[in-house]
Amino acid sequence: MNNFKKAREWIDNADAILISASNGLSITEGYNIFAHDAPFITHFGAFNKRYGIMNILQGLFFDYPTLAERDAFYQV
Questions:
Q1: Residue 1: predicted pLDDT
Q2: Closest by Cα among 41, 54, 49, 47 to 71
Q3: How many CB atoms lie within 10 A of CB 44?
Q4: Cβ–Cβ under 8 Å, residues 53 and 47
Q5: Residues 6+ apart with CB under 8 A from 47
Q6: pLDDT (tens digit per residue) in 10-25
Q7: Closest of 47, 39, 45, 40 to residue 70, by C-alpha
Q8: Model pTM greater than 0.70?
Q9: For the chain, what percent of residues have pLDDT higher than 70?
Q10: Its domain of life (predicted)?
């Protein structure tokens, strides 16, 4: 059985498929999680002022003082 047929069999028999991708896909769509740019300031400027967070990636892993603050960042 060739690799494509085997892969197709796995996909056909799977309950679900998880597709993961690097940040290149988000950057292609205009979401640069590493950037401290105008869109970041527009959406996350309050977090930058309050906590010094410089980009989305840093905000995702920041140690917020409360769960409510963390959730507020995630909901932007």
A1: 63
A2: 47
A3: 20
A4: yes
A5: 53, 59, 62, 73
A6: 999 999 999 877 777 7
A7: 47
A8: no
A9: 99
A10: Bacteria
Q: Per-residue DSSP letters for the chain?
A: --HHHHHHHHHHH-S-------THHHHHTT--TT--SHHHHHHHHHHHHHH---SHHHHHT---SSHHHHHHHHT-
Supply 14's token pair: 């799977």
CB atoms under 10 Å from CB of 27, counted, come to 13
